[in-house]
Specification:
Length: 101
């Protein structure tokens, strides 16, 4: 499996709009083969802060999702709302509730 965990900053005052787009991405990924987990959250200590957690079957599945036309369109709309993505961590998920064995 392949995991990503990161934090970001929305442009000032744009967090809710950005979160809306990211939650739409989560809905698009819900039935995408290879995506096990895609969770979006807001940072309770930062009015512009966001968090994203992802688990994929493989790095190739993650990369493939980025070529999906609906995801590409969503990225083009959401990208201008992002001020920074200062933290991005890749990891290897070993298991847990909701993940395949």
């Amino acid at each position: 499996m392949y995991g990503l965990f990161g934090s970001g900053q929305a442009e000032a005052g744009q967090r809710e709009a950005l979160l809306g787009h990211l939650l739409h991405a989560a809905a698009l990924l819900r039935d995408l083969d290879g995506c096990y987990h895609y969770v979006v959250g807001s940072d309770p200590n930062d009015p512009d802060g966001i968090w994203i957690s992802e688990v994929w079957r493989s790095p190739a599945d993650h990369q493939g999702s980025l070529t999906h036309p609906a995801i590409q369109q969503l990225i083009s709309v959401a990208r201008p709302l992002i001020a920074a993505m200062p933290q991005r961590f890749e990891y290897t998920p070993l298991g847990g509730k909701g993940l395949p064995e």
